[in-house]
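Hi everyone,

Forwarding the result from last night's run.
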Amino acid sequence: MTTKAPSSSPRRAGQRLSWRNPSVRSAVYQGLLLALVAAAAWYLLSNTLANLAQRNISSGFGFLGREAGFAIGETPIAYTPADTYGRAILVGLLNTLRVSVVCIVVATLLGTLLGMARLSHNWLIARLAGVYIEFVRNVPLLLQLFFWYAIITESTPGPRQALNPLPGVFLSNRGLKLPGLQGDALDWIAGGLALAVLLSVLLWHGARKMRLRSGKPLPVLRIAATLLLALPLAGWWFSGAALALDMPHLRGFNFQGGISLSPEFAALTMGLVVYTSAFIAEVVRSGVQSVSRGQWEAAQALGLSRGRTLRLVILPQALRVIVPPMTSQFLNVTKNSSLAVAIGYPDIVSVVNTTLNQTGQAVEGIMIIMAAYLAVSLAIALLMNWYNRRIALVER
């Protein structure tokens, strides 16, 4: 004889909808929080639109298509005052990206050297590196920017008395002038260089897998150096050698032609590199010290020199500790570049400030700046997180 179990589905349904159920309480709290955030956003938006309408200020991004009417000192792409506000803001964004990339690369190299110097067995080198790091980290970045800008602009002569250490190289208070290249071959050379970098990266990954499988190393550095030299030359040859050297020359009160590095760009680069390298040095030092002493002793027992031990044994393990805080330093470089407005470098903040002063579109201008820095920061974070996952230890 079988007995039928009593049905408990109504009771269970009541329990699922009871306030004692943690899931129900969690859903209610999250719904209330979401409604509160939506109400706050609606209030701020409606209040802003009402204030703009009261002052007869039109909203929207239609001003981006209007003529800008102001010049920009440094333009990585073609730009004239007759171009639109949208193109002017693009120029400012490219200037921000240019200085950020240069500073990230140089600050990483300098910071790594300083971090290694801090760990040196030489007492003088270790103490000098420590004094540099502690001094630079505790001086405000804005003050350092003013210092470098004053040094560059006040300690160099005018264009007519410019220093000429090498043929075609002039240093004055207007900046550094260098010989440049011009011609149709530049696109081919740039394409060859980009292809060489891509092939070098693929070669490095392939050589690493081959070394793990068979233990046979490949001369990656020699092959990569050959590619970096041969492919740009091949691009130059295929283009018909349409390339000419553009030498800077004095005309009036300034130089014409060649490549120009402005004092503002130089001061901003120096300030960001010096400031950020001190923080990166501490990141590198802590990462190296996180590797156990036994790794050093095992490498020395195998007969490896200190340099090879550091390069082949210690740094690959320290990278797993170094990369996360290093990502924060790269993000700080990009965000700190907004201080460029204080010394007159035309980054995106400076260009948007000029734009909103002319158009009155303050809200839209701030939104553009926020979106630009958010996009750049997210791109850096995604790239560094991908690299961090690549080097992370895989548990078996």
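The first strand starts at residue 163 and ends at 166.

Cheers,
N.
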